[in-house]
Amino acid sequence: MRKNTLVIILIISSLTVFAQEQIPTSGDTDKPTQVYFEKPRPEWKDKLRYGGNFWLGFFGAFYIDASPMIGYELNEKGTVAGVGGTFIFQGSFNRNSANNTNNFVYGPKVFVRQQLFKRFFAHAEYEFINARADQFYSYIDTSTDPSRKYWGSSPLIGAGFYQGGDGRRGSFISVMYNLGFPNSGFISPQSLLGSQTPITLRYGFLF
Q1: Residues whose CB is less than 8 angstroms from the CB of residue 148 and which lie 6 or more positions away in sequence, other chains included
Q2: pLDDT score of 120 more than 80
Q3: Rounded to an integer, what distance in angstroms lies between the CA atom of residue 41 and that of residue 53?
Q4: In order of start, what are the domains of the chain with their CATH numbers?
Q5: Cα distance between residue 90 and residue 92, in whole Å
Q6: CA dist 79 to 14, 116, 164, 171, Å?
Q7: Tens of pLDDT along 80-112?
Q8: CA neighbor of 123 nearest in space, from 49, 17, 26
Q9: Where are the alpha helices (DSSP H) in the chain?
Q10: In the chain, what is the greatest distance between 2 CA atoms, to the nearest angstrom?
């Protein structure tokens, strides 16, 4: 009797375990796991450089210089070449002044920048400028109307350094020399001592 009872208990336990097991159905088949990978950033985008020169002045007259630049890193040595533009607005604070005329200067440019040592770099550019005649080194009072605007060009070379980043990008300050001096070339509002020197200070950033 005990043996039969033990057999019955074992049978009931087996049925209970079998009943608890989930019978697989067609909807329970394993589905492939979807894995999403981030699309790699194109290498050429990492070599693009954006920025420009910016200057705001209030000494005797108001002017703002916003000169954007876009370049491309050509090699592992930090050589960047690109294009840009010069946009300068000048205005006088004195409404009664005879020279109270707003002046807009603009033009395209090409440039090359080379990393020298750590954060220091050399910079060369060639810019075309549309400006008043008296804003060029070649202006002569007796033969040229100072208000007439025309196109001129300026080759510039110089050096500077980045104030942050990895030595190839960031905010920077540079000193440029206008090779057109004293026979041609645009007199930048950032020129030290105005038309008496071809040296120009520039502030900006390139990322």
Answers
A1: 132, 133
A2: yes
A3: 28
A4: 44-206 (2.40.160)
A5: 7
A6: 78, 10, 18, 17
A7: 999 999 999 988 766 555 555 789 999 999 999
A8: 49
A9: 2-20, 43-46
A10: 136
- Residue 75 and residue 88: Cα distance in Å, rounded? 32
Residue of 156, 162, 155 lying closest to 49 (CA atoms): 162
- Rounded CA-CA distance 41/19 in Å is 54
Q: Answer for the pair 207, 48: CB distance below 8 angstroms, yes or no.
A: no
CA dihedral 119, 122, 127, 133 (to 10 degrees): 100
How far is it, in rounded angstroms, from Cα 181 to Cα 174? 18
Q: pLDDT tens for residues 55-74?
A: 888 766 788 999 999 999 99
Spatial separation of the C-alpha atoms in residues 52 and 98, rounded to whole Å: 33
Query: Residue 60 corresponds to which amino acid?
Result: G
Query: How does strand 120-132 pair with strand 103-117?
Result: antiparallel
Contacts of 13 (CB under 8 A, 6+ apart): none
The tokens describing 12, both together, are 């009931």
Look-up of token digits 């900006």:
204
